[in-house]
Specification:
This protein is mostly helical. The protein has 12 helices and no strands. It folds into 2 domains: 22-118; 120-281, Orthogonal Bundle (Lysozyme). Helix 7 (185-194) packs across helix 8.
Length: 282
C-alpha cells in the first residue's frame, strides 16, 4: 500500500526519525566536520608551536596554511604578552630597588654630613671661598665616607686636607701636586691602575674635590698599611714619597726637616679631636 493509499484509508504512514532532506543533511554535516577539523588543527598547531615542532605546511594546502598562520599568530601574541608582563615586573622591581637605594644613600650622606659637622670640618672650611653650598656639603660627607671606607679617622683625613690645601680644591704646589689632598698625577694614575676597573685620569680631574678625596684617602690608607701603622712615617711618605720615608733614619737632619709635615698634620688632627669637647663646653 502506497503512502497516498494509506492516507486515504486512514492509516498514518510510519514516522522515520533523524532523517531530513538529503541536501540539508549533507551541508550541515560538512560544516560540523570542517569546524571540528579547524578546531583540532588550531589546537594541535598551537601546541606544536609551543614545543617548536610545527613545520610550515605544503604551500598548496590552503586549509593547512590558514590553520598554521592562525596558530602562529596566537602563539606569537601570547609570547609577546608574557614578555611584556615580565618586563613590567622587572621594571617595577628595579624601580623599587633604586628608590630604596636612593633613600638609604641620602640617609647615609646626611649621617656623614652630621659627623663632619661634629668634628668641626665646617669651621675649617669657612676661611676658604672655593667651596660653597651643595659642593661644600658633598666634600664634608665625602671626608667621612672615604675615611670609613679606608679604615681611617675622618678627623685625620680632614687634618691632611687642612695642611695640604687649606680646603682649596684648586690649590697647586710648586711640585705640581693638585687639589684638596695635593695629589701628583703619576700617583693618581697608579692608584687607578690598582683598582678593579682601571680608569684614565687627566690633570683637570684632580680638581674635582670629591674625586680627589677618594684618591687621597685611598693613598693614605695604602701608606698606613705599607708602614705597618706608623702614622709619622706614613705621613712623611705622603709628603715626600715612600722611598724617602723608608730610607730615613730617625734623628737625622733629613728626618728633622721632613718631620715638620707630620707634626703640622698631627697638630691639626688634635684640633679636630678637641672640637667636639669645645663645642660641648659652650
Amino acid at each position: 500500500m502506497t503512502g497516498a493509499a494509506a492516507w486515504r484509508a486512514g492509516v498514518s504512514p510510519p514516522v522515520i526519525r533523524g532523517r531530513g532532506p538529503a541536501g540539508r543533511q549533507s551541508a550541515a554535516s560538512r560544516r560540523r566536520s570542517l569546524a571540528l577539523v579547524l578546531a583540532f588543527a588550531c589546537g594541535a598547531s598551537a601546541s606544536g608551536a609551543v614545543l617548536g615542532l610545527v613545520k610550515r605546511p605544503d604551500p598548496d594546502d590552503r586549509l593547512a596554511n590558514v590553520t598554521f598562520t592562525a596558530a602562529l599568530a596566537v602563539e606569537t601574541a601570547r609570547r609577546a604578552d608574557e614578555r611584556a608582563r615580565r618586563a613590567e615586573a622587572d621594571l617595577s622591581l628595579a624601580t623599587a630597588r633604586v628608590q630604596a637605594l636612593s633613600a638609604t644613600s641620602t640617609e647615609q650622606e646626611l649621617a656623614d654630613l652630621r659627623e663632619a659637622e661634629r668634628i668641626g670640618v665646617s669651621r675649617f672650611m669657612k676661611d676658604g671661598a672655593a667651596l660653597w653650598g651643595d659642593e661644600r656639603r658633598r666634600v664634608m660627607a665625602a671626608i667621612v665616607r672615604e675615611a670609613r671606607r679606608n679604615g681611617l679617622d675622618p678627623a685625620l683625613v680632614a687634618a691632611v686636607i687642612q695642611v695640604e690645601s687649606h680646603f682649596d680644591p684648586f690649590a697647586v704646589s710648586s711640585a705640581g701636586a693638585s687639589g684638596l689632598m695635593q695629589l701628583m698625577l703619576p700617583t693618581a694614575r697608579w692608584l687607578l691602575e690598582k683598582g678593579p676597573e682601571p680608569k684614565k685620569v687627566r690633570p683637570a680631574h684632580l680638581f674635582n674635590p670629591v674625586f680627589n678625596i677618594e684618591l687621597g684617602t685611598g693613598y693614605l690608607a695604602h701608606l698606613m698599611s705599607r708602614f705597618d701603622g706608623d702614622l709619622t712615617r706614613a705621613l712623611i711618605a705622603y709628603n715626600a714619597g715612600p722611598r724617602i720615608a723608608r730610607s730615613l733614619q730617625r734623628g737625622s737632619s733629613s728626618w728633622r726637616r721632613l718631620h715638620a709635615y707630620p707634626r703640622n698634620v698631627l697638630a691639626a688632627y688634635k684640633s679636630f679631636l678637641l672640637m667636639p669637647d669645645q663645642v660641648a663646653a659652650r
